[in-house]
Amino acid sequence: MAIAHVATEYVFSDFLLKEPGQARYRTVRTELAMDKMVTCVAVGLPLLLISLAFAQEVSVGVQISCFPPANFSWRQAMYVDSYCWAALHTHTLPLWLHKFFPYILLLIAVIMYSPAVFWRFSASPLLQSDLSFIIEELDRCYNRAVTLAKRMATTGEHTDSGVSDPTEGCFMYPVVEQYLLTKRRSVVLLWRYLLCRGLNLLTLLLACVYLGYYLRLASVTDQFGCSLRTGLLANDTSIPNQLQCKLVAVGVFSLLSFVNLLVYAMLVPVVIYSALRPFFQSHTHFLKSYQSLPTISVLPLPQGQWDDLTLYFLFLEENLSELKSYKYMKVLELLRRRGVCEGEDFDAMGLLQMLCLVKTDATDGKRSTAATSNASDKNPNANARRNAKANDNPAAGEASSKAPAPGPASPDPGQSQTSATEMTEFSALLPGNSAMTGGSDEGAQSGCLRANELQLRHKTCPMSSPEIASLSWGHMKVKGCSSAYKDCKVWPGGSRAWDWRETGTDHHPGVQPADLEEVLQKGVEILVIGRGMSEALQVPSLTVDFMRQRGVELRVLQTEKAVTEYNNLVGQGAKVGGVFHSTC
Length: 584
Prior knowledge:
Function: Structural component of the gap junctions and the hemichannels.
Family: Belongs to the pannexin family. Belongs to the AAMDC family.
Low-confidence stretches: 14-22, 157-171, 362-462
Largest sheet: 5 strands, mixed
Protein name: Pannexin
Mean pLDDT: 73
Pfam family, one: DUF498
Number of helices: 21
Number of domains: 3
Oligomer: single chain
Shape: rod-shaped
Number of strands: 11
Region (Disordered): 367-421
Radius of gyration: 36 Å
């Protein structure tokens, strides 16, 4: 029961919730930089113009000036100004627009801010939670890949002493991939985003129409005649029939309207681009480097569909600063490109052994320590049983008593990483770098050895088709080859990693003829395709027809069955090749 408890705690430790006080991803941005810029300009500019309009009113005085008769007292002159200002709405021309111009600008600013308020309360809470989960899972997948690579390097030296497969006990269910797939079947968040952009665009267009009309009105007239003969003064002949009045603030308002109209007109194409940006494919390239990790299956990519997945990738790109493992994956990607340019193969597992873990949360940081202490506390007889086995089998006891060779230094995930430590980790990855300043000769030799380990060597196998030695989720070993694969191609005399990015392959539409051309050129007569552990990889009819035209027998199976079939054909001496997908 103690062993079962420890195993259960180890497997499900990833699902432990963090403490309520921890808020590592509180700074996740749920508003795109371009949208925030549009909101700030569209709201801030009218408010600035309002302040200028009211400042002009304070400095000049009232916004209207009428010419009263000479016999009017100063009180009567003030009454004329006030009466004519209040009577603006009675004229055929809508002169009242001059009167309410600052307040209409305030209304425009409020309407411009309403889409941002709607997005913040209707979509931001869910989006922030989802992005935090996806970012944390990507960091955890990177940590698992580094841990697996170091475990393989350690256990690879003791395979003869009965050590189990290093991939056993690793939780490899594709959580983040399956979670992203659920977003492909949802359009709620995308429609809310498009609704906000549509409201922004509609408000901008209406504001431009109003400002253009106001400029035309201001150019027509800023003077009008005001009649005072109303009410008790209707029959007073001492009062002129009409008085000349002028709106003194119209000139300033016209200038403010022109500036506002010009800026809003420039914002219209920006809002249109913002609305169409989720449907572009250029923002999905940043996650391609994670495909080389053995702990990550093929991440679903947008395919020009109207779904939430396109929007999530856009916001993930906006929050790359929160993805702590991204800088390490960029190192992997740069070294992979350099290896491809030099005609060498890319050994991701060998390079992962040199990288350090990234900090995720307290649960991740204390996992290994807690599991070790629980195992020693709850199973006190384990050491006695190991000693007894060592007495019965001295060779095994000696092998087990030896401590594994120390790998490259990787700081505790729970501790903060300094720039010096990160530069030490990265400097060891580059060929030609020796020890750091002040280091010993042993450190220089260690740096050279680690650089030599990163030299990407071509994997050579016998001229007969090599057997597949082992298969687990995200991990394949070909007999006679030192490196492990996630997806692989095998043929008589060799093998290499199957990189889907070379041909743009995805689960749908599936395996392309270009994926099989390299294997067919080796003269195979039978080709075996492994569709994945869950048979998610498709084989379209186009590929089947292509194989029929080439005269090569095609066998498409679930990956475990495909590996068994392939090894049987190799044992029979057949000229067989294969392409295998080891995850979903």
